[in-house]
Q: What sequence folds into this?
């Protein structure tokens, strides 16, 4: 009878000691509020709410805007690593939601979109958290508009990150030449994959469960 | 050399080439007939013998296993019956101590009651004194004829009056005496009843003892059967083990269901204590902590049952002296009680956390929050369940013991059946290999039948010519 308890316990402890992989998830969402895309922020809010409901204690979540000419720390709207206790996590999630709601209701459109800067920042932040699964969610039309003189044609370092492009809407120019849309998506895919990341596009927002599910 | 080249020995006529090839092949096969036959037969024999040996060794192992099972079963059965007989004797001892130890007192009470009844009876038999003898003389005088003499008539009248008054007095005294006797007899009634009840009690005790004696007789018969190692006893024990195995497995499944519900009750609140984001291997630490609590409860339940001598899984606990056992009972019960209280608290916390998560989800989904009706009912229900489950799991020890003891028998029986079937299959394969060898030899002969036929014809002619020669030589 002692063996019945002893061996599973030893096996469990051995497995526990051997397994050093992190089971936490890190999610960084980049919000594009430039030009006509400002209207899409309500949808972004719903997606953030869904992610807040899905993420578990110990997970990390950050949201940043990418509508400045050059991405900087002040573009980060809110970021937090949820506490291990579910009750504290719930409080953190409420605070998170409150900040996002404030942003969505007060934001105004801008002329710039610095996606590269946002992705670089997100990649660095997620690597620092040490999360086991890292997701960068880009809520944008993927059309980058940066200030003159800024260089963004730089390689991305995204090893271990999964970049999910959400709600990639078609621009007016895309309707004239749909190849522009496909070229834009394809270019981002190449950049992400050459940086060691994985690339996915989800345009059907009814399939939100696929964002973190792969 | 390819098939196309072979069929081109005679260029342009593949059929002739094929026929020639066939003839050559048949001839070669005929030449190799004897060694090929030997090879096929030897392979078949090797297979047959090998399988036979394996089958025989498996059957021997099966017999040993059956024998071992039988020994184990009989030993376990004997131990079980011994325990039952011992328990019956304990019961008899208890009855004797409880009821018959007071037998001298009962006997004394009975004797006192009988003496009292006897005394009353004696008193009730005392008759009133008969009328004095002179009364008869007076009666005789009173009945004498007066013959007209007034003086005599007066005397006689007085005498008659005296006789009548004497009679009345006598009757009155008699009635009084009868009334006193009735009173005494009436006083005897409670004693009779008490006596009857006492005798009934004694009778019941004796009847109980007879019943116990009958049960002990039956157990002793079973024990004798087991001691004599009869087939009937073995069959009876196997049947009993099988029944126990299935019943205990069923009860264990129910207990596992209870443990799963218990686990779900405490896994979420455990994340509040040990953290929801930490993992041990691929499993959440909170889940493992909840599982460990349940396993500790089961272990404590086992120790408690052992200390109470209800089960006998750990002989070391059973052999402890009574003082130590009582300490074990107190310690294990205290730990169980604490764990049950912790579980009740965790169940309460679970309800709070679940409600908070639900409220958060509703606010995230932009749905208006609603207040559930009578929300204290599930809270109290969960707390009660959390408190009850650890004690309910304690009783897992009983089916677990039955399962462990009967599992041995069931595995033994299944092992024997498996070995028997394996031996049969190996033997079958061996026989099939042997007959397959014969079959292949026949098929081989069928392929080389033309040269065989020619050879038999030549041999037949040689034999005929030899016979003719012998006939010519003989006179």
A:
């Amino acid at each position: 009878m002692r063996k019945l308890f002893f061996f599973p316990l030893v096996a469990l402890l051995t497995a526990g000691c051997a397994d050093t992989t992190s089971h936490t998830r890190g999610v960084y969402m980049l919000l594009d509020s430039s030009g006509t895309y400002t209207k899409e922020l309500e949808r972004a809010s719903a997606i953030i709410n869904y992610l807040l409901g899905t993420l578990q204690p110990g997970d990390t979540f950050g949201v940043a805007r990418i509508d400045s000419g050059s991405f900087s720390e002040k573009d980060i709207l809110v970021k937090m690593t949820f506490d291990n206790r579910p009750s504290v996590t719930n409080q953190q999630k409420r605070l998170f939601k409150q900040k996002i709601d404030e942003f969505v209701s007060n934001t105004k459109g801008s002329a710039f979109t610095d996606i590269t800067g946002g992705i670089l920042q997100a990649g660095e932040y997620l690597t620092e958290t040490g999360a086991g699964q890292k997701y960068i969610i880009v809520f944008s039309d993927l059309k980058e508009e940066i200030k003159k003189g800024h260089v963004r044609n730089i390689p991305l370092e995204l090893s271990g990150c999964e970049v999910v492009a959400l709600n990639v809407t078609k621009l007016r120019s895309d309707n004239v030449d749909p190849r522009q849309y496909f070229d834009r998506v394809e270019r981002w895919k190449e950049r992400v994959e050459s940086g060691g990341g994985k690339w996915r596009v989800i345009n059907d927002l009814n399939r939100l469960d696929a964002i973190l599910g792969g | 050399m390819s098939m196309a080249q072979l069929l081109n020995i005679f260029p342009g006529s593949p059929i002739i080439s094929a026929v020639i090839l066939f003839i050559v092949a048949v001839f070669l096969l005929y030449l190799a007939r004897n060694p090929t036959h030997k090879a096929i037969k030897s392979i078949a024999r090797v297979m047959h013998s090998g399988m036979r040996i394996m089958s025989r060794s498996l059957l021997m192992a099966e017999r040993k296993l059956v024998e071992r099972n039988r020994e184990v079963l009989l030993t376990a059965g004997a131990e079980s019956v011994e325990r039952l007989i011992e328990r019956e004797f304990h019961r008899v001892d208890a009855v004797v101590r409880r009821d018959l130890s007071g037998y001298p007192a009962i006997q004394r009470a009975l004797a006192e009651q009988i003496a009292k009844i006897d005394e009353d009876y004696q008193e009730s038999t005392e008759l009133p004194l008969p009328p004095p003898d002179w009364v008869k003389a007076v009666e005789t005088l009173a009945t004498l004829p007066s013959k007209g003499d007034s003086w005599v008539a007066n005397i006689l009248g007085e005498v008659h009056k005296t006789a009548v008054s004497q009679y009345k007095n006598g009757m009155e005294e008699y009635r009084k005496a009868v009334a006193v006797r009735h009173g005494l007899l009436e006083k005897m009634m409670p004693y009779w009843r008490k006596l009857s009840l006492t005798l009934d009690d004694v009778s019941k005790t004796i009847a109980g003892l007879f019943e116990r004696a009958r049960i002990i007789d039956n157990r002793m018969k079973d024990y004798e059967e087991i001691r004599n190692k009869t087939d009937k006893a073995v069959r009876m024990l196997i049947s009993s083990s099988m029944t126990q195995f299935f019943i205990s497995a069923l009860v264990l499944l129910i207990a596992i269901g209870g443990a799963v519900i218990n686990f779900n009750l405490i896994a979420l609140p455990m994340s509040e204590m040990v953290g929801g984001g930490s993992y041990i291997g691929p499993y959440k630490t909170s889940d493992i902590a909840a599982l460990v609590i349940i396993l500790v409860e089961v272990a404590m339940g086992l120790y408690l049952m052992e200390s109470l001598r209800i089960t006998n899984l750990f002989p070391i606990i059973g052999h402890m002296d009574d003082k130590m056992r009582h300490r074990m009972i107190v310690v294990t019960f205290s730990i169980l009680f604490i764990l049950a209280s912790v579980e009740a608290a965790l169940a309460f916390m679970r309800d709070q956390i679940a409600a908070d998560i639900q409220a958060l989800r509703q606010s995230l989904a932009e749905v208006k929050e609603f207040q559930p009706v009578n929300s204290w009912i599930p809270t109290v229900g969960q707390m009660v369940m959390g408190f009850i489950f650890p004690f309910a799991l304690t009783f897992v020890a009983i089916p677990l013991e039955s399962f462990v003891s009967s599992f041995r028998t069931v595995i033994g029986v299944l092992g024997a059946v498996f070995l028997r079937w394996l031996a049969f299959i190996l033997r079958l394969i061996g026989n099939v290999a042997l007959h397959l060898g014969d079959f292949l030899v026949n098929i081989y002969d069928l392929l080389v039948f033309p040269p065989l036929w020619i050879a038999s014809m030549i041999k037949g002619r040689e034999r005929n010519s030899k016979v003719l020669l012998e006939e010519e030589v003989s006179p």
